[in-house]
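[step 3/7] inverse_fold.run input=structure_tokens len=72
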């Protein structure tokens, strides 16, 4: 259960990081000024936060799925 949650969280967090930080910073570079943190720092922060959240959500979903399966 934990291994499956870890694997699924990895893919989702990479997608969130690319879609939320990397692509906008590359495509719309004129909108980002000096007040934003460096791209590497912001990317790592988004990745870690989204990984933890996705892991917890995946773990919760798996736990509910097992709980529902045992009740039937």
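[step 3/7] decode complete -> sequence:
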């Amino acid at each position: 259960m934990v291994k499956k949650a870890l694997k699924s969280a990895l893919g989702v967090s990479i997608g969130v990081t690319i879609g939320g930080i990397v692509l906008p910073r590359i495509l719309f570079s004129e909108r980002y000024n000096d007040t934003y943190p460096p791209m590497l720092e912001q990317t790592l922060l988004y990745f870690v936060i989204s990984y933890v959240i996705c892991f917890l959500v995946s773990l919760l979903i798996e736990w509910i799925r097992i709980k529902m399966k045992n009740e039937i």
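[step 4/7] annotate
The chain has one domain: 2-71.
The mean pLDDT is 87.
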